[in-house]
């Protein structure tokens, strides 16, 4: 399994970005392993889906971003999915600690949690809101970097779409920051830059999601995707040109993305034998959590391993934890969220055409541990 890129534990992973920013702002107890240097304000812009390999492959479409790609990439963590990565960034912890261990994962008895909508989903795909029943602060109880920043006197804020206000993922991963709702690239840039004009040291996180959207719909590297990457390039260059002294802009991503040809898909809903002994199937096509019925885990493991073969790797949940895929620490409250079987794909994906019809049609996917999905940029610009 030499294609697997394990999460970094040496200070250059996505969970190290905000702790490094706090160190650069002079907050005690943190180390700057990313290389911000001493500064008065840090702006962190996350471009959803802008993997390191994709950026380098399409450098001509993003010349300014490509010119900044001089340092080694970061590793996103596991799985390489937005929910997990946003929580890793916001808490400064790997998924095994913060507990957002996938696109969907076992939460309440008999149901999967879908953190992007904070809904529970049963085995048939039916959803219900659980924001009141399972509060995000209970599901993810660790302090966020923004809470720690505010306690230290740093002006902590986030510039994210207005519709993210009060959502489960925002409360779980980004609480403690002032939310500045944005609607387009212009006010996203303006809100980031406004953080450089505060009376106190400032930390501002911004989110841009359109590149990921077009990668899913049209495929990474498609013409719409490349045109969107060029738009991101101009956005970042515009922010960089307006950075005052003692300010640093960091451009990062939550994961990369790979094309998903229909010929490479395994459709579980068309192969019911793969659901034999399975009580819940979580995760996403490139990284599946398989939760077995009592006593059926070994049979499920063997069946999935035989079916996926050389297209991926199928491990028990215990093996995945022992290999450090979820980070060095996985407490008991999180261990039950990890599947009895983990299936990560090198090629193709495992979809559900009936239960997950929309997700199954996406032309770009992510979640696994290939270099294309795991490596993300850390592009720094100083004012």
UniProtKB/TrEMBL annotation:
Signal peptide: none annotated. InterPro entries: Alkaline_phosphatase_core_sf, Phosphodiest/P_Trfase. Gene3D superfamilies: Alkaline Phosphatase, subunit A. It comes from the Bacteria. Pfam families: Phosphodiest (PF01663). GO terms for molecular function: hydrolase activity. PANTHER family: BIS(5'-ADENOSYL)-TRIPHOSPHATASE, ECTONUCLEOTIDE PYROPHOSPHATASE/PHOSPHODIESTERASE. This is Alkaline phosphatase family protein. It comes from Saccharopolyspora montiporae.
